[in-house]
């Protein structure tokens, strides 16, 4: 910390710290990879590794859909920025009201005719999204002039983005890098929870993860969020 206080460029300190941390993450992942076996028979069940492996196809599908939506999103904002913004602003309270009405109505159609504790909790909780919708509408009316300026800024940003093709390439290049890093990270993160063994619980063999794996997994999550923050900051600086 003394070095950080005396340094004229504190960003250099955090850059070096991030470099050491990301190197430590990949080194740890390599050591875990050579010390664990993904074909062990005692991994059957609901272990974290098994769950992530079974969900890999769904994650791939969701990734492709997210990338496709990003293309549609930027094209739509290029030509319909004002319309899309208005739909988002006014569609949100409508969705919240519907979200509140559904559990309220369904609470009267249960087995106990709306007199059970669950039905009462559903009716009480249904007023929360309705209250959020009311607050949202009030804030829209109160900040209507600022919203108009914000829409104009969005339209100007879309025009600038459309006239500079390199910015679009940079945006999707960053998206591609984050996507690749995310999949590599998922592979490393799931492998962390292979450290452990089978234990007898209630007459059944259950895979028990080592306590150290939870700490390493938390570090991996922290590094993933830190990396996303750096990518987001890089885009903001360029734009």
Alpha plus pi helix count: 9
| Count of β-strands | 2
What is the percent of helical residues?
over 70%
Distance between the termini: 32 Å
How many structural domains does the protein architecture include?
2
* Rounded Rg: 25 Å
> Mean pLDDT score, rounded?
80
β-strand percent reads 5-15%
Helix-strand topology string: HHHHHHHHEEH
User: Low-confidence runs (pLDDT<50, min 5 residues)?
Assistant: none
Strand order of the largest sheet: 1-2
* Shape descriptor: flat
Quaternary arrangement of the chains shown?
A: single chain
> Could you describe the largest sheet, including whether it forms a barrel?
2 strands, antiparallel
Which structural class fits the helix and strand makeup?
Answer: mainly alpha
List the helices and strands and how they pair.
Elements: H1 2-6, H2 10-35, H3 48-54, H4 56-106, H5 117-125, H6 127-142, H7 144-163, H8 165-192, E1 196-201, E2 204-209, H9 211-238
Antiparallel strand pairs: 1-2
Name its key features.
about 240 residues; mainly alpha; 2 domains
